[in-house]
């Protein structure tokens, strides 16, 4: 029946999203690992200034840097709702929005390997 199908779809939509790495991406120019680390540090140092709660930013950083098997538990314990499965958009329990750039979540395709 239409109603049963709608209810089922709705309940599935409120379930947990399987967290995944962002799709492959490229930095505007080739970047070294140390430059990538510098970009990430700058983001995490300035992110709380864009709003939201410090403890949520801390949990998002922990999840971004964690072993994939722990990410879901970190997010759940912090009360973070993942809007995009790649964690680029998340919300806290109060509805505050947190946007994460792909460079804090994964490596670019044009990362320069160590020589």
TrEMBL record:
Database matches in InterPro entries: DC-UbP/UBTD2_N, DC-UbP/UBTD2_N_sf, UBTD1/2
Domain DC-UbP/UBTD2 N-terminal: start-end pairs: 16-112
Superkingdom: Eukaryota
Pfam families the record matches: UBD
Protein name: DC-UbP/UBTD2 N-terminal domain-containing protein
Composition-biased stretches (Polar residues): 1-12
Region entry Disordered, spans: 1-30
Species assigned in the record: Erythranthe guttata (Yellow monkey flower)
Database matches in PANTHER family: UBIQUITIN DOMAIN CONTAINING 1 PROTEIN-RELATED (PTHR13609)
Regions crossing the membrane: none
Record's compositionally biased regions (Basic residues): 16-26
